[in-house]
Amino acid sequence: MNNYVLSCCSTSDLTFYEYKELDIEHISFHYFMDDVEHTDDNFTSITSDAFYNAMSNGVKTRTSQVNVEEFTTYFEKFLLKGKDILHVTLSSGISGVINSATIAATLLKEKYPSRKIIIVDSLCGSGGYAFLMYKLSKLKKEGHTIEELNEYAINNRLRIIHLLFPTDLRYFFNGGRVKKAVGFISNILHFCPIIESNKEGKMVLKKKAIGKKHALNDLYDLFKETVDNGVNYNDLLIIAHAHMKEDAETLKEKILSEFINLKDKIKIMEIGTTMGSHCGPGTMMLNYFGKVRE
To answer: How many Å apart are CA 117 and CA 224, to the nearest integer?
Structure first.
């Protein structure tokens, strides 16, 4: 049995059931609703409907990443059991959490010199982050070493495509990701930008769409253009959404009508409280293996 722990942050948006099933440990971010702090517990203490309805009704949300002290306490409980650690962080392109994890690991290596603590930047978020963790979990269960998992993560993280669109840009400009004037005008015009993650794990504009219907069609068309092996794609596909369950199911059926190899390989998941605080309700994301990001 592998003598190491596979770990990630709650921003992978996996459920507690999935963490257990995949044998993955995790540490939680924090989020605030009207300045009241909560733990990102993957919709355990609050339902996704309640969270996203609150946002739609004007509740202000913000987030707080895991600090050095929290990481130190979290890592040490595994080190005390004689376990090595491979911790995969949220993309450095959208969060500085890797810095806290790295500092904690450096401090603990002095105290536990015989133990390995490997910190790797996923360059992914939400559904893409979950995609990578699914792959690493499978390798660990197959008996691969901690070094082999680290190498796989580094060699394959940029193959994981992130295509998404928000139907309401006010959550992006509330977080400073879009200028307020631009966001205001965009919402009046029903502008739904198709966004992708680049090689630095940052969100960049891929295509402009007007309205949800056009955005969904464009998302699907871009998926067909960029997915590995086209309609013969035969690997994991994740549809992540924020309060768009019916649209996610419709998109799944559309994909299955053309991508016949994907039966039982499509996972629909909800974007969690931390990531959802920034993208807002009405966001749809596709994650899959494609051409290495530029």
So the answer is: 39
Q: Where are the alpha helices (DSSP H) in 112-162?
A: 127-141, 146-156
**Inside any domain, residue 280:** yes
* Co-location of 18 and 137 in the same domain: yes
Domain hosting 83: range is: 4-157
pLDDT value, residue 203: 87
Query: What value does the mean pLDDT take over residues 69-88?
Result: 98
34, pLDDT greater than 70: yes
* Model pLDDT for residues 191-219, shown as the tens digit of each residue: 788 999 999 999 888 988 888 999 999 99
Q: Please check whether residue 88 lies inside any domain of the structure.
A: yes
Report the relative pairing of strands 237-242 and 283-289 from DSSP bridges: antiparallel
Helix (H, G, I), strand (E, B) or coil at 276: helix
Q: Is residue 294 part of a domain?
A: no
Indicate the length of the chain as a whole number. 294
User: How many Cβ atoms are within 10 Å of 82's Cβ, its own excluded?
Assistant: 10
Side chain identity, residue 46: I
**Residue ranges of E strands in 34-155:** 36-39, 61-64, 84-89, 117-121
Same domain, 174 and 94: no
Taking the whole predicted model, whether its pTM rises above 0.90 is answered as: yes
Cβ neighbours of residue 84 closer than 8 Å, sequence gap 6 or more: 3, 4, 5, 115, 116, 117, 118, 146
What gap in Å lies between CA 30 and CA 41, rounded to an integer? 9
The total of other beta-carbon atoms located within 10 Å of residue 28's CB is 19
Decide if 233 is inside a domain.
Answer: yes
Phi first, then psi: what are they for 33, rounded to 5°? -120, 110
CA distances from 237 to 49, 87, 128, 130, 156 (A): 24, 23, 9, 11, 15
pLDDT in tens, 142-159: 999 999 999 999 999 999
